[in-house]
Amino acid sequence: MTKTILRALAGEVLPTPPIWMMRQAGRYLPEYRATRAQAGDFLSLCYNPELATEVTLQPIRRYGFDAAILFADILLLPQALGADLWFVTGEGPRLSTVTSAADFDRLKPVSAIHDTLSPIYETVGRLSRSLPAETTLIGFAGAPWTVATYMIAGRGTKDQGPAHALRQEDPEVFDALIDRLTEGTIEYLSEQVKAGAEVVKLFDSWAGSLPEDAFRRYALEPARIITQELKSRFPGLPVIVFPRQAGAQYVGFHQATGADCVAVDDSVTPDWAAEHVQVSGCVQGNLASSHMVTGGEALVRETRRVVEAFRNGPHIFNLGHGITPDADPENVQLMIDTVRGG
Ligand SMILES: Cc1c2[nH]c(c1CCC(=O)O)Cc1[nH]c(c(CCC(=O)O)c1C)Cc1[nH]c(c(CCC(=O)O)c1C)Cc1[nH]c(c(C)c1CCC(=O)O)C2
């Protein structure tokens, strides 16, 4: 029987939505923290196929989620393109910056990325051989705009100021970077699919900071190009796009990109998303991840509200954003029991 996630992605309305969780392998789980300590740092874990496979499987063993997502990070692609990358504990990622034509010219060609990323493909292959038969394997990459915001600023930023400045002040360099990332993302995801990923997801975490014209050009258009090219290379490949905090711009995103599923964050209500986004295809989301910290009756009530709102169309249950390190693993179980048990 076809896997539930693939059925939902094909547009089927299921009595119980399939479920997985962004960042389901992460620091809220004691077994993740133990494996990560064994690996040393986060990047060593990403590039270690044996341990990356292990942490990807941990939430599947513990909770029986319907999908596993490759354990990696959206910033591995810039690293493979030649950016220096490191993580500062308690603060987040740091990268060497791209803010001029000279910086851009130092980046490697897309053909070079596999030298760095081949361990990731090996992890995908191992996962594809070891997952339970009913579990779907999701590969992923960052969307060009979101990845560019980190490459331009050299770190995470609250308002993506440096990237907005570059796109306005030096559109030539900015567009060249977006194009390189678009091309790199296609090749990166293609290798994940060849290694066994059954679905791919594009994370555009900062799409919501783009004003309307720029949203079309830098969020929608790259997502369309990547989706279309992957679907022409791999007919039938399901694609999930996540233009986070797109608000009103979620409307029409399925049709404009050709993606099978639009993931929505929790800044929109499930009723609104059912009416305006699910009308055109499968929706993924969108319980606020704070419920995984606070739990209790509110968690049960809001979980039911999400299930109820999306009941009449294709839906994959998920959080509105990644689960946080301070989440309680028991609340995750309560969410799953509520989705599956009513
Ligand atoms: C912006 C972004 C990044 N990475 C990602 C995004 C887009 C989605 C989002 O908005 O959350 C995506 C990502 N990061 C990770 C995954 C793995 C798959 C999954 O479980 O969803 C995915 C899909 C693992 C990770 N990526 C990171 C962790 C925590 C690493 C650790 O210390 O163990 C994990 C499990 C680190 C990371 N990676 C990134 C940041 C800003 C950080 C530091 C923040 C933090 O410390 O939580 C960049």
UniProtKB/TrEMBL annotation:
Record localization: Cytoplasm
* Entry keyword Transmembrane: no
Keyword annotations of the record: Cytoplasm, Decarboxylase, Lyase, Porphyrin biosynthesis
Give the record's GO biological process terms. Answer: protoporphyrinogen IX biosynthetic process from glutamate
Q: Name the positions where substrate binds.
A: R23, Q24, A25, G26, R27, D73, Y150, S205, H321
What pathway annotation does it carry?
Answer: Porphyrin-containing compound metabolism; protoporphyrin-IX biosynthesis; coproporphyrinogen-III from 5-aminolevulinate: step 4/4
Q: What positions does the domain Uroporphyrinogen decarboxylase (URO-D) occupy?
A: 18-27, 138-154
Which Pfam family is one of this chain's hits?
URO-D
Q: Catalysed reaction(s)?
A: uroporphyrinogen III + 4 H(+) = coproporphyrinogen III + 4 CO2
Q: Cellular component terms, GO, for this chain's entry?
A: cytosol
GO MF, any single term: uroporphyrinogen decarboxylase activity
Q: EC number(s) in its UniProt entry?
A: 4.1.1.37
Its domain of life reads: Bacteria
* The protein's enzyme class: lyase
Q: Which InterPro entries match?
A: UROD/MetE-like_sf, Uroporphyrinogen_deCO2ase_HemE, Uroporphyrinogen_deCOase
Show which residues form the site (Transition state stabilizer): D73
Q: Has keyword Cytoplasm?
A: yes
Which protein family is it in? Belongs to the uroporphyrinogen decarboxylase family.
Q: What does this protein do?
A: Catalyzes the decarboxylation of four acetate groups of uroporphyrinogen-III to yield coproporphyrinogen-III.
Describe its partners and assembly state: Homodimer.
Designated name of the protein: Uroporphyrinogen decarboxylase
To which species is this protein native? Salipiger marinus
- Gene name, please? hemE
